[in-house]
Structures are given as structure tokens and as C-alpha cells.
Amino acid sequence: MSARSRQLHLVRRPHGLPVLRDFDIVEVPLAAPDAGEVLVENLWVSVDPYHREVFDSVTLGTALEGRALGRVLSSRNPEIAVDDLVIHRDGLRTHTVTAQARVIRPPAGVPPEAYLGILGGTGLSAWVGLTTIGRLEAGESVLITAAAGGVGTAAGHIAKALGAAPIIGVTSTQAKADRLLAGPFDEVIAYRDTTLLGQLAGRDIPLALEGVGGSHLEAVIGGMAEGGRIAWVGGISGYNAHTPPGAPGNLFDLVHREIRLHGFLVRNHMDERDGYEAFMTPRVADGIVPVEQTVVDGLDAAPSALIGVLTGANFGKHLVRVAE
Ligand SMILES: NC(=O)c1ccc[n+]([C@@H]2O[C@H](COP(=O)([O-])OP(=O)(O)OC[C@H]3O[C@@H](n4cnc5c(N)ncnc54)[C@H](OP(=O)(O)O)[C@@H]3O)[C@@H](O)[C@H]2O)c1
Question: What GO annotations for molecular function exist for this entry (predicted)?
Fold first, then answer.
């Protein structure tokens, strides 16, 4: 079976925050699957902050990649059947032919798209940051920046399940803060209404998962306890900048107070995926951990979603539903 695919292309290199006219949607024919390949109809595609870095290097006029969940329409892979649900990286398009698909079988109570969020690389990033990098211990306080995003909401639930207390979040608005307080967070700072540096100074927090960089990283350093650990997952506040942000003014506090700042990439920790899925899947299936996501419909909505994830339009994981 051959098919056509509508694909999102970057047609202009963005300067600063991307704008809608940087993108175009192009329809192309797909070759029939070769041996080992499957033809997939994408159902859900993920939009992520890392796409901003992709925009700086991707060849203009080619299909953008992204994590996706789809249904197999035809298969020349003996281990994958028609109608199987698969996860792959050929997102931001309606259909793809790929040899790199992983079959998922969501148990009862688990929506398939959770494998792009709380049960996917997003949740795994929070897990790796809090456990392998941050070495969270029950009873410890945890600080989470970008707390209302995909990684942050997952981190709140993981921290709760591992016995952290209190769990402190940072997000932009009081409306997002209120939603977080209805979940696992004990305290949430709405950074647009306050001076984050002043709010966190001297808090003696042992562990932070930091995903914003810039002034947030500086405030987090100021809030850490002596010997504290910062698991540094990202720097979204700088992704649209023309030049890299400067170092935090209090960077030398790392020396004075023996604070460990440890950056990491989830792709180097994929061996932890099975263990994390075993930990989190039953909690999602039982409804103990909700699947928190912001959904927009149709591939045509993907450009605004890609911009939205860089401007705080989402609560939880930001996803595009491409087909039912
Ligand atoms: N190291 C890795 O392997 C890895 C893997 C996944 C993600 N990450 C990083 O982790 C961070 C969170 O990723 P995510 O997938 O969970 O995205 P996300 O949090 O779902 O979306 C980004 C959030 O960041 C906040 N934000 C955007 N611009 C900001 C700014 N200028 N200052 C402060 N906050 C800003 C917004 O929330 P507010 O409205 O609250 O500001 C927005 O909702 C990102 O830096 C991402 O690059 C790294």
C-alpha cells in the first residue's frame, strides 16, 4: 500500500521566537514500505522545546521530525502487525514509512498518547533528573521549575510517589499555580507576579529539577542548601535568544556551598525506560497519576503549538492530535 503524507516543513529560519510564516505544510507521495518497514498513520505528534534548536539546523523545506504515536496501516516487518500502535520519531506529518517503530500495548486505563508524555521521554526526563541525577530521598524537599509543563508536571507526580515533601513548583501565572496546587505540589511560585530570586533566597532546598536557565537558574542556586543537588534538564528561557545567556551572577555559590549542578540528556538514559514504565504505568492505569496534557487538533495547528510550547501556552504535555 502506498499513501500520501502531509508534512510540516520549516521554510524560513526563525530569528528569535518562530512565527507562523516560518512554517508550511506540504503534501508528498510516500513510497510503499520496504522489507522491515511499516506504513504508519500518525494519530498524535509531540511538540517540544527542543524543536527550537532543530529550527536552527534543519534543512529548510524538509519534513520536521518529532516523537509520534501512530497506527500501522501496512507492514513488511514480521514483528509488527496492521493496526498495532507504534511510537517513532517521524512526527509533524500525517503518515510515514519507517523502520524505527516501537510497538506499544497500553493497558486498560492508559490512553495511548500518554506514551508521548508522562510515560514517554517527557516523563523519563523527570524520572532521570530526580532519581539518577538528583538522588531524591524520601522526606526531602524538591524544587521544580517549568513546573506546569510536560517534564514539570510529571516530576511533581514522581516526587510525590517517591515521598518528597514539600514539593515546590515555579510557573508563570497564578492560574497555572492553582492547577498545580490541586495536584502534588505543596507550594507554587508564580514568577510573573514576584521576584523569583527573592522568593527562593535562603530556602535551603536540597534538590532542584531546573528546566528554564537564566534568571530561574540563578534563583534556584540562591535557594539551594549547602551540598544541594541541581539536576539541570533544560534552559528554555534562552532557546530563542540570539546569543547564549550569560552565566548566573551567583555561579560561584556552587563552590562556596558545595552545590552540585549536573546537566543531563534523557537520550543517554534510555536503559532506564523499562524501569520507569514499570513504576509509572500502574499509577496511570489506576488514575493515581492523571495524564495532564494540552491538545490541539489537526496538523495545521502544529505551527502555533510549536510556538506555544516556547511561550507557556500549555499545561502538562503539549500534543497535536493529527487523526482520531
Ligand atoms: N535534557 C533533556 O533530555 C530534556 C528532555 C526534555 C525536556 N528538556 C527541557 O526541559 C524543559 C521543560 O521541557 P518540557 O518538555 O516540559 O516543556 P514544557 O515545560 O511543556 O514547556 C515549556 C514551559 O516552559 C515555560 N517557559 C517557556 N518560556 C519560558 C521562559 N522564557 N522563562 C520561563 N519559563 C518559560 C512555560 O511554562 P510557564 O508558563 O510556567 O513559564 C512552558 O510551558 C525545557 O527546557 C526542555 O528543553 C530537556
Answer: oxidoreductase activity, acting on the CH-CH group of donors, NAD or NADP as acceptor
Check for a shared fold between 3-116+292-321 and 121-267: no
Q: Are strands 23-30 and 3-10 parallel, antiparallel or unpaired?
A: antiparallel
pLDDT in tens, 240-260: 998 888 899 999 999 999 999
Render pLDDT for 133-183 as a digit per residue (tens, 0 to 9): 999 999 999 999 999 999 999 999 999 999 999 999 999 999 999 999 999
Task: Look at ligand 1, atom 5, and give the residue with the nearest C-alpha.
Answer: 125
Report pLDDT digits (tens) over 258-280.
Answer: 999 999 999 999 999 999 999 99
| Residue 294 near ligand 1, beta carbon < 6 Å | no
Cα–Cα distance measured from residue 152 to residue 315, given in angstroms and rounded to the nearest whole number: 10
What is the rounded average pLDDT of the residues 62-75?
A: 98
> Chain-wide mean pLDDT for the chain?
97
Measured in degrees and rounded to the nearest 5, phi and psi for residue 71 equal -110, 135
Alpha-carbon distance of 80 to 269, in angstroms, equals 25
User: How much distance in Å is there from the Cα of 253 to the middle of ligand 1?
Assistant: 24
Query: Which of 3.10.450.50, 1.25.40.880, 3.90.180.10, 3.40.50.720 is the CATH number of 3-116+292-321?
Result: 3.90.180.10
How much is the pLDDT for 102? 97
Between the CA of 211 and the centroid of ligand 1 the distance, in Å, is 6
Does the Cβ of 156 fall within 6 Å of ligand 1?
no
Q: Kindly state if the Cβ of 51 falls inside 6 Å of ligand 1.
A: no
Q: What is the CATH number of domain 121-267?
A: 3.40.50.720
Distance 291 CA to ligand 1 centre (A): 17
Domain segments of the chain as ranges: 3-116+292-321, 121-267
Q: Which 3 state secondary structure label does DSSP give 29?
A: strand
Asked if residue 126 lies in contact with residue 158, where contact means CB atoms within 8 angstroms, the answer is yes
Contact between 235 and 212 (Cβ < 8 Å): yes
Instruction: Specify the ligand 1 atom closest to the Cα of 313.
Output: 43
Q: What is the pLDDT of residue 1?
A: 54
